[in-house]
Amino acid sequence: MPLLQSIVHRLDPTLDGESLTLDATSAAHPADAPNMEALASALNDTYNTKPKGWGRFAPDGEQATLVAAWLQAYLDGEDDFVGMSCGLAQRLATELAAKLSVGGYLVLAHQQQGDTQTLLLAFVHQREGIGINADHHAVPAAQINTRQLTFGARLNITQWQGGDPQTQYVSFVKERGGNKLAEALARCLGVTEGADAPADTRTLLKAFSDYVEKEDLDAEASREKTDALVGYASEQLSRGEPMTLTELSGLVDEQQPKAFYEHIRNADYGLAPEIPPDKRTLNQFRRFTGRAGGVSVSFDSHLLGSSVEYDETTGRLIIKQIPKQLKEQLQRRD
């Protein structure tokens, strides 16, 4: 992901732990700095694998207004990247003082991929290691730990500038169950959380299961559509981007590209046009299928233990909720 601007500041807690000191950098890195590009790329890779909260700037929030104003001034050329980054860094130093006990480096990177621009904010630590010098001697070598983010956030500038009131254009690292540091970071940036990635992903998978049942698809067709959904969701997850319902609908059914989208809208699942994928929820989703002796069975794994039960001792599969189409056929069997 090409870098447009990047900079690194240092934050350190005071001895009494009551505040953070900011060691601000006075100049940004050159746009073509290869080491900075490598660092930003590694941080993006790590960020994409982390569980996240999603939201947008609070419309009436004082902090959101201030942060958005700094960003807009930079984008409009009224302020430079250094000034904007120092303002953000000082705000973080003030607001997160009680949450950080170890110093580290605040990396800010303005990036562009295709037509999309983003601003990555990541706080990382330096670890001590061993390297080899020109004389082939082992020497101390400090290294940034890019696999661990103390906190991080990413703003999709392009979506923010687009002004869609439903778009969740800010994401931030949020470990399972939430944590005080993530919540403090969101408040500091003026972000109001609007998307629940695990819940929305579960709802999407439920909508997909209902769609497969409604269409009365055979096992092979159902498996193909499942693979299309999971493949698309995994790709978006690796890129750190949300799933788009219209795009997903076209992949699920190429012959009727709007069918799945219309099913979601008509059934009123309450899903936004874009959904941030949740890795853990996706990993738990797959379909069990089997065919033997004229009997074909296929169901989503998340139904096991609820509407479908398996007795391993007797080898029996108990289906509690029979599909409507099958039930009607059974009722007409005489």
Report what the structure shows.
There is one protein chain. This protein is of the alpha+beta class. The protein folds into 2 domains: 3-195, no CATH class; 197-331, no CATH class. The protein has helices at residues 34-49, 62-75, 81-95, 157-162, 180-189, 197-215, 219-239, 245-252, 259-267, 279-283, 324-331, and strands at 3-13, 20-23, 52-57, 104-113, 116-124, 126-132, 138-144, 151-156, 170-173, 191-195, 243-244, 274-275, 287-292, 295-300, 308-311, 316-319. The strands form 5 sheets. The protein has an 8-stranded antiparallel sheet, sandwiched between helices. A hairpin with a 6-residue loop joins strand 1 (3-13) and strand 2. Helix 2 packs antiparallel against helix 3 (81-95). The longest helix is centred in the C-terminal third of the chain and has 21 residues, at 219-239. It is elongated and about 85 Å long. The model has no long low-confidence stretch (mean pLDDT 85).
Strand line-up of the largest beta sheet? 2-1-4-5-8-9-3-10
Determine Rg (CA atoms, Å): 25 Å
Tally of DSSP helical segments = 11
Mean pLDDT: 85
Low-confidence stretches: none
Largest sheet: 8 strands, antiparallel
Distance between the termini: 64 Å
What is the overall silhouette?
elongated
Helix content range? 25-40%
One letter per element, helices H and strands E, the order comes to EEHEHHEEEEEHEHEHHEHHEHEEEEH
Annotation, overall tally of beta strands: 16
Helix/strand/pairing class, anyone? alpha+beta
The domain tally reads 2
- Strand proportion, as a percent range, falls in 25-35%
